[in-house]
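Handout, section B. The chain below has 133 residues.
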Amino acid sequence: MRILILGCGPLTTLLLASPDSADHQFTILSGDMDCLDDLADEPRVITLLTPEPLMQDYLQLGGIDNADAFLALSEDEYENILTSQIAKHIFNVGKVVCRLENPQLQQFYTELELEVVNPTLDLLQDLNRALQG
């Protein structure tokens, strides 16, 4: 599975280390150069530094046109919402997962056919379930 991830942080690192993700190819978009450098040696990961991640150009450079799944895992909920909507409704990515902490936003965006995960719960399990479901 080809997975495009917005955001590089502890959650992304956990997902990459998960045995459930061993057969997946990842492209990670982030403005965090240090985090991207830490993942650069991983053979199944492509990293892309994105100073403006909301730009559709960066999503296209990351391969959203060929992605099987898009995971919006940045710390910015509104950035996650916007890029998830773009992935789902403009690029027609089949599986879109959006990280949100706000319960009201979670309910609203779940109704718009986005998989929503809460980082305060068992997020890694939820991510793996969403990718396989």
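Note. The chain has a mean pLDDT of 84. Compare this with the example in section A.
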